[in-house]
Each structure stands twice: as C-alpha cells, then as structure tokens.
Design goal:
The complex is a heterodimer of chains A (226) and B (322). Chain A has 226 residues and is mainly alpha-helical. In chain A, 77% of the residues lie in helices and 0% in strands. The chains are: A mainly alpha (226), B mainly beta (322).
C-alpha cells in the first residue's frame, strides 16, 4: 500500500476485508508516519466516544475539544488541511468544513452505508458520506499531483543551473509556508469561504510553481544558447 | 421516454435583486429510475454585467445570446420527489454581478450545503447576453461556454471544459479532465492536471497551456508568446511565428511536432532531445552544441525553444503563398 492507500484503509479499519487489513498491517510495520496516524486516530475515536452524540451536531465545538486533547499539532493540521482544502475546491461555497469534519469523525464511530435502497431517499448521513468521499478523492488527487511534481523536481534540480536550483529551494519553502498558513487559517475558520478558497488557491499555486520550475529547468539548457 | 415540464418564472427588475429556492412546484418526470424536475427562470440583466455560476452538483452549459436577460434552465435529478424538492437553485443580482449557485437542503440542522453527491444532481443551462463576462465552476461536472465576447473563466475539478467562439481572455482549469478551446480571440491560460488540452483557432497576444499528465495539441495559433508544457504527453503545434515572438514547447516525457509559418523576420530554433531533431522545410540547421541543435530561418527574429527529455522533436516550416 502507498501512504495514501493506507490512510484510506485506516479510515475504514474494522470494516476492511482481510486482505486489505493484512496489507495495512504490512505497511504500518514499515511506515512510522502511518503508525503515528493510526495512534492519533485511535485517540480521536476515543475522544469522540467520550463526547457522546450531542456535540457532533456542532462540529466546530467537537473538533475544538478533541484538538485540545491532542498534542501532536502536525497531525491535526494535516487532517484539517484536507478537510478545509476539500471544501475550498468547491470555491465560494460557504461549506461547512465542519460538516465534513463531522462526517469524517462519524466514519470512525460507525461505518457509514453509502448504499441506499432503490428509490429511497438517502439520509443526511448518507449524502454527507457521499460528499466526503468525493472531496477526499479530489483532495488525494491534488496531493498526489504535488507529490509527483516534488519528486521530479527534486530529482531534476541537480541538473539545473545553480541559481535556478537555489531559487527553487527558497521559493518552494515560502510556498509551503504559505500553504501551511492558509491551512491553519482555514482550520481556524472552517465556515469562512474566503479562507477555504485561499487554501485551494495556495495548493493550486504550489502545483503551478512546481510545474513551472520543472519546465524552466528543462529550458535552462537552451536559454544559454545564443 | 422522459417528458420534461418546465416551471417558468419571470421576474420583474424590481424583484430581481434576489430569487431563490426553485424548490417546488415544477412538474416532474422519471428518467432511468430517477426523478427529474425542470425549471426555467428569466431574469433581466445589464449586458455588461458579470455572470458567476457555481454548481458543485453538476454540469454547466453557458450560451450567449443577444437578449438583455439571462435564462436559467435547471434540471434537478434525484431518486425521489422529496429529495429533488430539496435541491435549490439560488441567484443574486447586484453590483454588476449575476450569481447562480446550487445547494441541497439537508433535513438536519446543517441547512443547505453545496457539495458534490452522486445521488443527486443539478444540470444548469444558462443563456446570457453575449457581452457578459462569464465565470463558472463545477466540481465533477462538465463546463462549456460558447459565444461570449468579454472573456471566460472556467474551472472544474473532475469534468471536461469546452470554450468556443469567445472574445476576450480565457482561463480554464481542469484537474482531471480534457479541455477543448476553439475560436478564441484573446489571451489563453489553460491549466490541467490529468487530461489533454486541445486548442484550435486561437488568436491573441499570449497562449499559455500547461498540464501534468496529458498532451497538448494546438492548431491554427496566432500569438506572439506561446508557452506549452506538459510533464507526460506529446505536444503538437501549428501556427504563425510572429516577429520577435517567443515560443516554448516543453515536455518531460513525450514528443514534440511543430509546423510553423514564420513572419518576414524569421525565427531561430533551439531544440534539445535525446535524438537529433528532424528539421524539414526550408529551415537551415546551423549546428549542434552541447546537445542543443540550433537552426535559423530568415533573420531569426523570433525564438522557438523545444525540449523533451525522452521523446523526439520534428519541426517543419510552411511558407504562405504571397
């Protein structure tokens, strides 16, 4: 499994097929990051259970309480970034990233049923689960795109002119900081559509930057030719 | 066969500042087991206004016409009448912007949400004055715009993008879908994740297209600055080379074919690829240095740079009959 696949499997842990569960265990045995993810998830589930059902109707409050109980901020930020970004993809929507967070939390409490009876009206939970699945898939797509571009750029920059490689490193760091800041803002204000849109824009800007850097690196050889 | 009925709403200007919640009263039909309800709204607008459409629940078709109003046709689809009745199409008008959004009303305290869900959909078709600048986004739905004269910005996550017969600058973005742009009279900026970009009959000052996984095909291009780049895919380019122009075609993993018609000032070609580039027509190869092939046509006024890490390069020159 890749880390992304493992993360998905973690969210369905307990309901996973035996083959997937075995593959997940194999991955966890060799991946400290995903092991940490599972530990945090376990703690979050415990926190949610302690909250009971009422706070789930107010996801912001629920999250604040759980987040306060977690001491590994990076994990919290990563989860929120995904939620916030997913909401941001839908642009100016006043989406409640909190709704998604709530859905995400509920996924750990009980496995949602995405199936519905023929002709029956899906419940709110089922509809939100559908949305969560759509947004998570899109978010994964973006993050995988960034990962791929990063790998290529990191590999190729050894061939780039020194000035370009140095500029790339500096700009990349500042752009990653910008994404982190946008993620924090989005996490702190999940109901603010402008902050969600800003986070989406930050991700897209990072993709554009990486694509541009790779292209410039390819063309650098020609630039010095009269 | 599906029978479609429309509820037609006409709003007087005084009432047009806000219309909302086309949520009931439409006549319904069943299609493929789903309930489909169709609604139509006509709204007077100023042709110079901007039209902003945000439909996370389905596709958007934008068509220009020569009437001073917009017409919104919404097809709402879902597994039951009850659920379809909770699909909402909202609009606001003010400050020179006509905005159309779609939402689903949940039963619970969350209220309305605008998120993609496969159980329900809203397909929007909007006719709008030709002079409106259009901005539209969907989530997984396709997007198309045709006939507008003040530019267009189209963004979708998982759908296809089509823009045709557009005057003014056009920007498009599709993270996972193909893009087709045809008959554009203005600058073009197209960004793609996975998907091809097809450009035909583009005339502007600048054409910029970049994708991560997909090919770029650009035909009948007239622009002074052309930058086409892809990480994994081929690039084909045919068009004019303007005097003093800049043309960059770069693919990390793919091949490049270019067929160009240079202006009087000619152009200089610089090409880098694992194998020597094929240079046809009357382009004169001027030598290779450090893996870069240099060729010159005429006075070499414009500059064309082509690079591929793993594919081939072929360049031909077509001279126009006097």
């Amino acid at each position: 499994l890749t880390c992304t696949e493992a993360e998905r499997a973690l969210s369905a842990e307990g309901d996973a097929e035996p083959e997937l569960a075995a593959a997940l265990e194999d991955h966890l045995a060799t991946c400290p990051a995903c092991r940490a993810e599972r530990e945090q998830t376990t703690r979050m589930v415990a926190g949610l259970r302690a909250l009971g059902g009422r706070d789930l109707e107010n996801p912001d409050a629920a999250f604040a309480r759980i987040a306060g109980a977690l001491d590994q901020d990076a994990v919290r930020r990563r989860k929120l970034r995904r939620v916030g970004f997913a909401a941001g993809i839908s642009g100016t929507l006043a989406v409640a990233a909190g709704f998604l967070l709530m859905v995400g939390m509920r996924r750990h409490l009980r496995a949602p049923s995405l199936a519905q009876s023929d002709g029956a009206t899906p419940t709110d939970d089922e509809l939100l689960s559908q949305a969560q699945a759509e947004l998570t898939a899109a978010d994964d797509h973006y993050r995988q795109a960034i990962d791929t571009l990063r790998q290529i750029a990191d590999r190729e920059r050894e061939r780039w002119p020194r000035a370009l490689a140095a500029s790339y490193a500096g700009d990349l760091a500042s752009r990653e900081d910008a994404v982190d800041r946008a993620a924090e803002e989005a996490a702190a204000h999940p109901d603010d559509p402008s902050r969600q849109a800003a986070l989406a824009a930050a991700y897209q800007a990072q993709i554009d930057f990486l694509q541009g850097a790779i292209r410039d690196g390819e063309l650098a050889e020609l630039e010095t030719t009269p | 066969m599906m029978h479609r009925a429309y509820r037609v709403v006409r709003l007087a200007p005084a009432l047009a500042a806000l219309w909302a919640g086309l949520a009931g009263g439409g006549r319904a039909a069943r299609a493929d087991g789903d309930v489909v309800e169709s609604y139509e709204v006509d709204l007077p607008v100023t042709p110079g206004d901007r039209l902003v459409v945000d439909n996370p629940l389905g596709p958007v078709v934008l068509k220009a016409w020569d009437r001073p109003e917009i017409r919104i046709l919404a097809d709402k689809r879902g597994p039951s009448h009850e659920l379809v009745s909770r699909l909402r199409v909202h609009g606001t008008l003010g400050d020179g912007v006509a905005q159309v959004t779609t939402r689903l009303l949940l039963i619970g305290p969350q209220g309305e949400i605008g998120l993609p869900m496969w159980s329900v959909s809203v397909a929007l078709e909007v006719d709008a004055p030709r002079g409106m600048q259009v901005v539209a986004q969907t989530f997984n739905g396709d997007l198309s715009a045709d006939g507008f004269s003040a530019g267009a910005a189209l963004v979708t996550n998982g759908g296809h993008v089509q823009a045709s017969n557009i005057g003014g600058d056009v920007s498009t973005r599709a993270e996972d879908g193909d893009q087709e742009l045809d008959a554009i009279r203005g600058d073009v900026d197209s960004v793609g994740g996975d998907g091809d970009v097809d450009l035909d009959d583009v005339r502007g000052q600048r054409l910029d297209a970049r994708v991560q996984g997909g090919s770029i095909h650009a035909r009948r291009v007239q622009a002074g600055v052309v930058h086409l780049s892809t990480l994994s895919g081929d690039i084909t380019f045919s068009g004019m080379i303007n005097d003093g122009g800049s043309y960059q075609l770069a693919t990390y993993s793919g091949s490049v074919q270019a067929q160009v018609s240079p202006a009087d000032g000619g152009f200089t070609l610089l090409a880098a690829s694992p194998s020597p580039p094929e240079i046809g027509g009357v382009l004169v190869a001027a030598g290779a240095q450090g893996g870069v092939t240099r060729a010159v046509y005429g006075a070499g006024s414009a500059r064309m740079e082509i690079v591929t890490q793993s594919g081939t390069i072929a360049v031909g020159v077509v001279t126009l009959a006097p």
